[in-house]
């Protein structure tokens, strides 16, 4: 089993090196690269889980795979440029304001009431507590969880300034 884990680790490292070579040899958007990298790693990890699960109990490996997949998702979010071209179409995952206030969920009515329902996510529930621009103010913003601060802009840059 240890041999299989070592082989799987080696395959994942080689895949990572291949992804790094792609980055240095091609002009690709970081978002595209991160998605390709995550897909490559997920495929390699799934192959390793299949190999290792024949030599040991499958359940612990599936839990490890789940942890790795969550880590890869977080990695992809970090690599994906978080910017907007049209503020009303912004669907990023930023959920804090410029000064650090946590955004209130859009489907909540406390601590701040509102009647906004124009979200690019398709619904107030899917908009979660992410920065959005339902009022067409020109930049993503949110209501805050702070009763003393109703709303505030989020520090999401315009894509053309990156």
Question: Can you offer a commentary on this structure?
Answer:
It is built from 3 helices and 2 strands; from the N terminus they run αααββ. The protein has helices spanning 2-25, 30-53, 58-79, and strands spanning 141-143, 151-153. A two-stranded antiparallel ribbon has the order 1-2. It folds into 2 domains: 2-79, no CATH class; 83-156, Beta Barrel (Plasminogen Kringle 4). 43% of the residues lie in helices and 4% in strands. The chain is mainly α. It comes from Sinanodonta woodiana (Chinese pond mussel). This is Kringle domain-containing protein.
The rounded distance between the terminal residues' Cα atoms is 47 Å
Gyration radius over CA: 21 Å
Question: What is the 3D form?
Answer: elongated
What does the average pLDDT come to? 77
* Unreliably modeled segments: 1-7, 22-27
The fraction of residues in strands falls at: under 5%
Q: What is the quaternary state of this protein?
A: single chain
Sheet having the most strands: 2 strands, antiparallel
- Helical/strand content category: mainly alpha
The percent range for helix content is 40-55%
Counting DSSP E segments of at least 2 residues, the number of strands comes to: 2
Name the strands of the widest sheet in spatial order: 1-2
Number of domains: 2
One letter per element, helices H and strands E, the order comes to HHHEE
The total of helices stands at 3
């Amino acid at each position: 089993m240890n041999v299989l884990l070592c082989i799987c680790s080696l395959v994942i490292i080689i895949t990572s090196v291949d992804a790094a070579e792609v980055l240095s040899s091609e002009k690709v958007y970081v978002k595209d690269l991160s998605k390709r990298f995550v897909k490559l790693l997920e495929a390699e990890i799934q192959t390793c889980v299949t190999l290792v699960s024949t030599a040991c109990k499958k359940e612990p490996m599936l839990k490890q795979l789940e942890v790795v997949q969550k880590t890869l998702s977080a990695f992809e979010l970090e690599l994906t440029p978080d910017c907007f071209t049209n503020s009303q179409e912004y669907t990023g995952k930023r959920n804090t304001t410029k000064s650090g206030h946590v955004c209130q969920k859009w489907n909540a009515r406390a601590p701040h009431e509102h009647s906004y329902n124009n979200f690019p996510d398709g619904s107030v529930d899917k908009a979660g507590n992410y920065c959005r621009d339902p009022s067409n103010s020109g930049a993503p913003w949110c209501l805050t969880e702070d009763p003393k601060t109703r709303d505030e802009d989020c520090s999401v840059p315009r894509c053309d300034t990156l």
